[in-house]
Amino acid sequence: MYRLLCVWALAVTVACPGESQPETEPLPPMPPLTAGSAQAGVYADFLRLPAGIPLGGYTSRDAAFGGTRTRPRDLRKSPWAHKFHPSAGHLTGVPLQALWLSNGDRHLVLLKVDLIGSFDGLVGRLERGLSQSTGIDMTGSVVMATSHSHSAPAAYFQSLQFALGFDRYDPRVLDRIAEQAHDAALSAFQRLQPAKLGFGIVPDFDPVDDNRIYRDRRQENDHLLSPKGQPALKDPSARLLKVETTTGQLMAVALHVGLHGTLFNDDNAWIHWDAPGAVAWGLSAALEGVPVLHFQAGGGDISPGGQGDGPMLRSDDIARISGQRLAPIVRSLTTSAGPFILDASTATVVQQHQEVRVRRQGSSDFHYTPVTLDEYGDAVEDPDNLVYGPDGSVLEAIDEFQAPIGAGLCGDAQGIPFGTIGMGIGKADPEGPYIGCAVLDRLIPVIAGRYQIDQDQFLYAGSTAKPTNNERAMGFSTVAFARFDGLPITEMNRRGERQEQVGDVGMIFLPGETTTLLNWVGDHQLEALGFDLPWVVGYAQDHEGYLLTVEDWLSGGYEPSINIWGPLQGEYLMEQALELAARGRGDRRVDHRGIDVGRPDYASEPLGFNPLSETRHVTPRAGTWVESLPERGILMPLNLDIGDLDPTERVNTLRRYQDVYLAVFEGGDVAIDSPRVYLETQGEDGQFVPFKSGSRVIDSDGPSVLMGYNPDPSRPSSASDERRHLWVFAWQPVGEGTDPLDWLNVPIGTYRFVVTGQALVSSPVEAPAPYQLLGEPFQIEPATIDVTVVTGGLRLAYAGAPLGFRKRGEGRTATGPVSLPPGISVTVDCQGDEQVLNVEAEGFLALETPADCEYVTDEAGNIGQIR
């Protein structure tokens, strides 16, 4: 395999030891680019994966590192999780979206999947599959970006070294994601139609002194400045791509803004799209349900904001505020059908100790000095342990990173200090930035032992004295570039001030957690190349952990803990993408030759373990309501404490805003069945139709209906044993939408829930049969208004919601009373004399003689009694 690495390295002009580079004939020029009119196709759905699949992002979801604290309370087993704890259902779906763009000359497909990170093995698989399905060579034209929600499914990343963040790789999971992503992209391709495109930038989307939506979380780099002199706090801007039909009907929006997916902590066991998904959902809701594809900017060192107690309320708040701020700007962006130039290119690049360099457009040559290991694996060379020169700048020859196959946990990560218990760089300065590093040749046996992987099959190559990292996921990574030239770019702030130009947009896509400072450096370099609007997109194409500038990495903190190739990795990868961008400034297609070594062939990668087997059990009771609960009870989503309530009992009435609907049904084996629950309302003709609040159907794919999965038994003797698959769902009657009063939009009337799914009814070899389950109709009734007599009038609030989990108005808690919104009109009944008045701030209603009045009714029919 070392020989293979050398052959691939020749493609990037790196000579292997003992070999000279052959002379080559000049390469033929790349084909010319041709301007053409815009075409676009959009597809939006949700990824369907088995319940029980582990969630990624937090190593503490492995019992060895987090104990039972992060496990579902019933301590369940699942055939879909290895060492990470199983998930227990979902609070939202996992959005899967595809935007296919073309100008008749070139094609670009932007895939957005709300997962913890991307994987270049999946990108290569999609390139090959879409090329075959469409007859178009899609090599280099497929971008897969992710949200980085820490409550998203994992186990699809084929890497031993990153098992700590994804659980052990499961081919069954990757296959499901690849198939559904391929079908989504193909559906978008089949929907291609003439379109208009336009870009925008909102410089004050979430100002530094606001932090309503996101905030800087990294203080260690506050002394560093961007190329434009900005302190390394946060980027307050948002960038937009608007896609509409030639008649002006909105088709899709791409939103580029950075924020971490960490509203939920490691003890959350339910899938949720977290803050990145909330931003997209909120803007989509404000735009009548148009698909919004969120692409991460410098979200690596940015924490989510949101007001309210707990992640559910903060998610609702982020969604509503994002929609309110961005929707008017999206509507006003200028678009054009072209003609315009489109180009795209992807490059897989080598990552090895002696290949990772940072040159900064030729002004620098940061590199790691060669390392020779003795028979015990210790470096022979003595580092000078000088990180900075006399002028305070970083020394370019770095001899302290003595980790020829990489090192991790170099920063201030919490947990076991592997780097200081015999696995570190032996000659590291105790006061320096490398003291925490755990070299992989010593750390990997620990990881491999925990996840039951035979690392000797594929990990190391080279010689004992000069090994190389032979795992494809760590030895290579993938970057991408896209260009749009000749389209309108609108800069517009929230005050409505705007500037317009027709210009050139340059996008680079980086494989990891890009941070604010790195993104600003990338923006600056793209602008220096002549691009009028830069996009530096993170969490795309692959995943390498945190990507920081050299100086930022050396500043310490948590973020340097999660990457493999030290302080140079972030800028090295960005420079590879910028090289594609530099080659993309002419009138010919990007010449990726000499940069791209081709997507790794993960299919030939030895696993080093026997994958978990898949079982598909017959479930004859699937599609029925559960009449009695198991003796052990059931686990509610969000661990809701329902007290004496029995979710198997029929619900006849429900007070909007304050009550919660509960029901339990039996589904099919989760290897087959991902049931969907949605709400219907009865029309005047007596027929039931799906209920929409604003533009959204109330269902279990959005944030409205929470789904808790309960296998019975929860702990069989073997995780693959037959069991029942019980689902409990919960809905609080709160409206969707982003306007301040949209949450009130749940009309009085008759409703019912519908469940759809599929199951094996009689034989494990038969095709799954669909089922539909109709709930009993129930009535939505008015909410109770709590009325308090105060000086000069009344104080009005909607009554508390004991089981509440959604944000109601500006309320900070989910369960307490919430003031009626200012501006809403109410009717006051005073001894038969009715007065219509408007509520003021904090639910105050000015009323001269409240003691003479009996009832107050708001404009939606909710009633309160004046006592």
Describe this structure in words.
The protein is α+β, with helices and mostly antiparallel strands and 867 residues long. The protein has twelve helices and 43 strands. The chain has three domains: 438 residues, no CATH class; 158 residues, Immunoglobulin-like (Sandwich); 81 residues. Helices cover 16% and strands 26% of the residues. Strands 1, 3, 4, 5, 6, 8, 9, 10, 12, 19, 20 and 22 form a twelve-stranded mixed beta sheet that branches. Strand 27 and strand 28 form a beta hairpin. The N terminus is likely disordered.
Report low-confidence residues grouped into runs of 5 or more: 1-20
| Overall average residue pLDDT | 92
User: Structural class given helices, strands, pairing?
Assistant: alpha+beta
Helix amount, in percent?
10-25%
